[in-house]
Amino acid sequence: MKRVRISRILLVAALAALFHMLGSISPLAGLRDNLFSVFFGLVRTEKQNEKEAATAQEYMVRIGELEKENQELRQEKGVAPQSGSSKVLARIVWFEPNPITPYARIDQGEVNGISQGAIVVAPGGIFLGKVQRVFPRSATITFLTDPSFRFSVVMGEKRVVGLAQAANDGMLVVEFVPRESLPEQGDQVFTAGKDDGVPRDLFVGTVIQALSDPKEPFGRITVKPQASSHTAEFVFVYLITP
């Protein structure tokens, strides 16, 4: 590290001398100004890369903490630990401000092994969405708030099974749960993995309301998703194996 810093100091000193010499020769003053712009542009780029690397390292530490907290929650709730499925870490580049079908672009794509329909989770094994479209070096992902996305879930210690899909207020609605088997407010919700392409036991969210109507055979359950599609920055994408 010290050798690198000394080399940078010598490089800056040499370039400063060169810039001074070029400035003393009027026909070369324009060349000097151009070199100035290129040099300091490179310096700014290097600093930006160092900052992004530091940010990524900080997020990796936080991801490790969230994974640990998630495993502790699974143990507390009696949920089986996640299998060792291969995952790719990706960064969300930008969000599409579409209130009907929100999606985002990530910086990993086909060359990284990502496929259409692959499951996307937030750090800590929290279910976030799935891959919508794949490009060579990027992909778009859609979130649980996509109205077309339906998946099976299990709720509470009784492992009550239902079918979840997005509501209009950013919440999830779970259907086809018999009135006699309704979960309780505060119960944790996980994916059930019932032939819908979604791995089982991903953390989804928390039951905030469970209503029943004596005239209806099924209740209506509202779940608040644990992960927010607007605050996620790094995500994991499950690789689909043939």
Structure description:
With 242 residues, the chain is of the alpha+beta class. The protein folds into two domains: 62 residues, no CATH class; 158 residues, Rod shape-determining protein MreC, domain 1 (Thrombin, subunit H, Beta Barrel), CATH 2.40.10. It is 30% helix and 32% strand. A six-stranded antiparallel beta barrel has the order 1-2-5-4-3-12. A six-stranded antiparallel barrel has the order 6-7-8-11-10-9.
Structure characteristics:
six-stranded antiparallel beta barrel, 12 strands, 30% helix, alpha+beta, 242 residues
Secondary structure topology:
Layout: H1 2-24, H2 29-77, E1 87-96, E2 103-106, E3 119-122, E4 126-134, E5 139-143, E6 150-155, E7 160-166, E8 172-178, E9 188-191, E10 203-211, E11 218-225, E12 234-238
Antiparallel strand pairs: 1-2, 1-12, 2-5, 3-4, 3-12, 4-5, 6-7, 6-9, 7-8, 8-11, 9-10, 10-11
Helix pairs in contact: 1-2
Q: Please give the alpha-carbon distance between the first and last residues.
A: 45 Å
Strand content: 25-35%
Question: Biggest sheet, strands in spatial order?
Answer: 1-2-5-4-3-12
The CATH architecture of the largest domain: Beta Barrel
The portion of residues assigned to helices is: 25-40%
Averaging pLDDT over every residue, what do you get?
76
The number of domains is 2
Broad structural category? alpha+beta
Give a quick account of the main beta sheet: strands, pairing sense, barrel closure.
6 strands, antiparallel, barrel
Query: What coarse outline follows from CA principal-axis ratios?
Result: elongated
From the alpha carbons, calculate the radius of gyration and give it in angstroms. 25 Å
Tally of extended strands? 12
CATH class of the largest domain reads Mainly Beta
- Listing every helix as H and every strand as E from the N terminus to the C terminus, the arrangement reads HHEEEEEEEEEEEE
- CATH superfamily assignment of the largest domain? Rod shape-determining protein MreC, domain 1
Number of helices: 2
Taking pLDDT < 50 over at least 5 consecutive residues as the criterion, the unreliable ranges are 22-26, 79-84
At the third CATH level, what is the topology name of the largest domain?
Thrombin, subunit H
